[in-house]
Amino acid sequence: MLTSVFDFQSALGCRERSYISDPEEWTNLFKVMGDDLKGRWRAVFPARENESDEEAFSEAGVRRRMRKLSRDYPMEALVHRNIYRVHQRVAKAFRAGRVFLAGDAAHVNNPVGGLGLNCGIHDAMELAETLRLVVSGQAGEELLGRYERRRRPLNIEYVQQQTVANKKRLEERDPKVRQANFDELKRIASDPLLHKQFLMRTSLIESVRKSARIA
Q1: 28, 116 in Cβ contact below 8 A?
Q2: How would you class 123 by CB atoms within 10 Å of its CB: exposed for 0-12, middle for 13-18, buried for 19 or more?
Q3: Dist CA 164 CA 61 (whole Å)
Q4: Mind listing the pLDDT tens digit for each residue in 72-93?
Q5: For the segment 112-135, what is each residue's pLDDT rounded down to a tens digit?
Q6: Whole-prediction pTM value?
């Protein structure tokens, strides 16, 4: 992952969250606030097969990646670089007695879509409300089991499935499948009903509403 102060939106005409599909080296380009609230762009690339950390961190490796996005990219605009291993995992249980798991302790996934953080916030909200009801005496301790009943299956159904599908779409190599994927996204974007359904699911709003129906 590379972080830059370069204005990719002006240079490329992209949005604050852009997904660049490429069979050789896909990219996620996200704009975040940054510590100074002036904005930073995070560019996420996959490591190449058999590429060492040193090679990925090298100026040549960084320059090659960033200049695939913009030929005029200034290297001095780079402010941070990091390598992390991606996993798709969900804990077998989110609760053991008085111990509860939430966020990255409970589930990890690839960063395509920012769904791990989103889901982690929902974990915290659900757990805080559950504990409030029990501690205040408004509910018995049996309510504590509801946290896992709600959060674990919804992470699998929404976050895990979606992040895996997102990554597969970006790295697809078969030209026919790639075109079919693009055509399907265009079809969804052009239909107001399908567009709303897509956004409700990818924003995890649908999962929150479904969670409220799980006793």
Answers
A1: no
A2: buried
A3: 26
A4: 888 888 888 888 788 899 999 9
A5: 878 888 999 999 999 999 999 999
A6: 0.82
